[in-house]
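During the reporting period the student researcher (J.K.) took over the structure-prediction task from the postdoctoral fellow and processed the backlog of single-chain submissions. One of the processed entries is reproduced below for the supervisory committee.
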Amino acid sequence: MKYLFTLSILLCTSLSAQQQDYDLVLTEYASGRYEEALMAIERCIIHDTTNYRYFLLKGRILENLYRYDEAIITQEKALQLNPDDGMEAQAALATLYLLTGQPAASAQLYEQLATAKPQVTRWKVNWATALQASGKPKGALEQLKIVTQTDTTNWLVYKNLGDCYYRLDSLWQAFHCYYCALKLYPNNKNLYGMLTRILTTNDQIEGAIEVGKEAVTIHPTNVEAWKYLGIAYYKSGDARKAYNALQKALALGDSSFTAISHFGVISYHLRFYDQAEKSLLKAHQLDPKDINTMNYLASTYGINEKPQKGLDVLNELDNIIASFDSIGMRANMQRGYLLRILKRYDEAIDIYITATKVFPQDLRNFYEVAVCYDLVLNKRSAFDWYTRYLEKIDPNWATKKWTEQELNKYEFATFSMNRVKLLKVDLFFEEEKR
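J.K. obtained the following structure tokens:
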């Protein structure tokens, strides 16, 4: 009896200490003291290794400490302990997968969550975000459209819709969505920047200047707005205002080729030749094959009495043009595409085979030859060229386990793999018949 009494006291003491540790975890976590919270939650886990909540909270603490790999392992453990009702762990894992560059895995989890509880809007929005990061803007677009049918007040939904349309080159639809998002979230710096960018890109110069000026008035540190406001001023012919706006963007930390190259060209036109040389040289280093930058840089070297440097740049330019043989061959490749549409396959094949020799790194040419042979029912040649196309992507394509992310880099890879398999079967049966 005395033994049971002592055991009872010890058990109560242990439970009390465990509860104190858990209360401490919550306090430290809420205060942002994550290292202290981590030590306390680990003490809790030592006392109880089966508590789903402990592992869920530990995973969140590790995420806040940017220890993402450990957080993933911990949330997977939480899900293992509570598979029937582990939506919190699933959502945490989906976020972690996205943070660690695994958008396809993230999208899969968010799809499960959104399907299980379609009334939870944020999971559909996050699913769309993961799909977009996976290179599937069309899939993301469909999910976001569904969300807008029941929720027209979430600015982030319209912002993400704008991102999808922008990636699909539907700029005016993107503009409309960004504008709707801005009405729901007035003065958002990024939205103003995107609106200025789209208007400038589409040569809506007056609108771009108006929106850009408003953007930088509200947010004087809006780099994107300053950059595209400068380009809009340049397109309007106001070089001085363009120079000032782009100078502001660069001063705020813009290091993009677009900003630096435009600033160099505008400096050249304003006869600030020393400034032009510095900017154009930097732009040339960022993109060594941009023809416009090279022409301006060569001219600037001449004005700055550095003729040999100017000649060196022009020699580089000559080599680039010669290596491409681009004007005639690129036009001919377009001709091949049109001939294929007109079902003049033999002529298209000749063009694309020549193109594979001029541009051996352009995988689309190999694919086009394969398709043309496929369409004229030359199975053996189609098999050969589809295989060459896949081998150009990866010499080990046949044995490699392809991820969805890798396939997205090569638009026609999946189709080509399927055709090779089918043609291989067809060729086998043809040989059997003989």
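The committee noted the following: The mean pLDDT is 84.
J.K. will present the remaining backlog at the next meeting.
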